[in-house]
Design the sequence.
């Protein structure tokens, strides 16, 4: 099989879809790997490392797409890449179709088979290819929130000027996490480690019970109702949106009315923004301009958060994605028929949308 690895072109997306180590594994299995020049530089993987692993380095994305049967990426294609995707291609990447009708329509028009990392399931119904990036984004959300609560970090609008863990005689910051899944638990781990007072919301009592058993009185676990969420959000210094419904838009849990009543300089980090966001005032932002201010509240809505730590993220992602790619390389699209969980990743095929969004 001919496998192509184009350079990511989303702003400040420094991850790459394949490491040199996995390139060698695919090469040794008899497959041809084509890597666009410079694709791995942002993750500290240079072209020579790919060459030594058996890859062919090509100058342009056009050459990579033309040579390859399988295109493996990190993020969804952007408009300038739509025309490069052909009916014969298998596209394997994060898609997040629910957040973009334009992308969905464009990929449907190509006739290609489009497999989304985020909807593949394992035998237990979990999302193994979403987990590593969710863990990274969750850990980053608490870290980022703590940074923007400082004054002077954002020139246009200061944070509240508080330390997440407080100080002797000074109470810690209040952090509210919406969702007790992978992102929420990762955020919780960092927020508790930094000494914050943390509230965690979910409608899964088993998940809340597990957190309660693990953290005890250090964390308030609260069943999700609109009134309970409103009460805690208004008391919070940092709100982290960590809700995911597989392949669908995130539910709207925090209204604009609630945001209007939050404290001046409070921070919202909406990790669910690439699925439409779970906070009404959220907008997609970039690593260049990560913050927008609405109603005196700082909103962080970078959709590719793990792109800020690309070396860690690329290793973590490839450890999860590459075993599936190896199946595709060995058996083509028929590999999906042999694994029902893998087949759930097929979002678009032969001009048809196969999932509800």
Sequence:
């Amino acid at each position: 099989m001919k496998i192509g690895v184009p350079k990511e072109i989303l702003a400040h997306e420094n991850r790459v879809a394949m490491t040199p180590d996995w390139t060698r594994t695919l090469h040794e299995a008899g497959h041809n790997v084509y890597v666009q020049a410079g694709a791995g530089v942002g993750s500290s993987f240079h072209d020579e490392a790919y060459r030594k692993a058996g890859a062919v380095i090509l100058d342009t994305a056009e050459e990579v797409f033309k040579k390859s049967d399988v295109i493996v990426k990190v993020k969804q294609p952007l408009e300038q890449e739509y025309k490069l995707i052909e009916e014969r291609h298998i596209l394997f990447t994060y898609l997040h179709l629910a957040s973009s009708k334009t992308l969905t329509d464009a990929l449907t028009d190509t006739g290609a088979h489009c497999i989304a990392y985020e909807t593949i399931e394992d035998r237990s119904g979990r999302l193994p290819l979403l987990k590593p990036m969710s863990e990274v984004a969750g850990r980053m959300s608490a870290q980022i929130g703590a940074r923007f609560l400082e004054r002077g970090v954002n020139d246009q609008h200061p944070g509240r000027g508080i330390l997440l863990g407080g100080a002797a005689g000074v109470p810690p910051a209040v952090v509210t996490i919406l969702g007790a899944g992978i992102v929420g638990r990762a955020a919780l781990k960092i927020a508790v480690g930094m000494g914050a007072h943390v509230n965690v919301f979910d409608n899964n009592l088993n998940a809340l019970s597990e957190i309660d058993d693990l953290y005890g009185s250090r964390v308030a676990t609260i069943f999700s109702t609109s009134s309970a969420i409103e009460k805690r959000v208004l008391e919070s210094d940092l709100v982290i949106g960590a809700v995911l419904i597989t392949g669908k838009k995130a539910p709207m849990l925090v209204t604009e009315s609630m945001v209007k009543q939050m404290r001046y300089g409070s921070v919202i980090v909406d990790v669910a923004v690439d699925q439409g966001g779970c906070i009404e005032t959220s907008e997609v932002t970039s690593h260049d301009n990560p913050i927008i201010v609405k109603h005196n509240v700082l909103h962080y809505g970078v959709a590719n958060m793990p792109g800020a730590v690309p070396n860690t993220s690329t290793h973590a992602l490839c450890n999860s994605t590459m075993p599936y790619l190896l199946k595709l390389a060995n058996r083509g699209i028929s590999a999906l028929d042999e694994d029902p969980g893998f087949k759930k990743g097929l979002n678009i095929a032969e001009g048809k949308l196969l999932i509800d969004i």
User: Anything to note?
Assistant: The two ends are 31 Å apart (CA to CA). Residues 202 and 224 are 5 Å apart (CA to CA). Residues 310-331 form the longest helix (22 residues).
